[in-house]
């Protein structure tokens, strides 16, 4: 036993093989269905001549936000339908924690649109919808308080 503890102290033996492991499976909450990101990979058929131009759609989300879904709703309604520059300006002057979170998500989405989806001008993005979801099944005690796992998702249109 003393030799085993010595090997553990020297790092020669993996600590997982000796110490008891936790039986709480935490990766299930992180492995949420990525269906919103999959919407970015949809390829539409070519348009016929004379058809109106289909606007590009870019989906981006952030999960596991620790903020009230009800407070997030007011901010989402504030910027829905605005251009991204107007929305960032509105969120800049809000002193709420959720405004800073949404601002970070919008900046991430804007950067992703330019980098991955070949959007030429950053300011040509408009906010179509901002959804908010609340996970009830994963954290039942926290779901009663309404503050642990709010999901926020933004949907941009060029």
Automatic annotation (TrEMBL):
Keyword terms, alphabetized: Ribonucleoprotein, Ribosomal protein
Gene Ontology biological-process annotations: translation
GO terms under cellular component: mitochondrial large ribosomal subunit
Signal peptide feature range: none
InterPro entries attached to this UniProt entry: Ribosomal_uL22, Ribosomal_uL22_bac/org-type, Ribosomal_uL22_sf
Annotated GO MF terms: structural constituent of ribosome
Top-rank lineage group of the source organism: Eukaryota
Family: Belongs to the universal ribosomal protein uL22 family.
PANTHER family documented for this protein: CHLOROPLAST 50S RIBOSOMAL PROTEIN L22-RELATED, LARGE RIBOSOMAL SUBUNIT PROTEIN UL22M
Protein name: Large ribosomal subunit protein uL22m
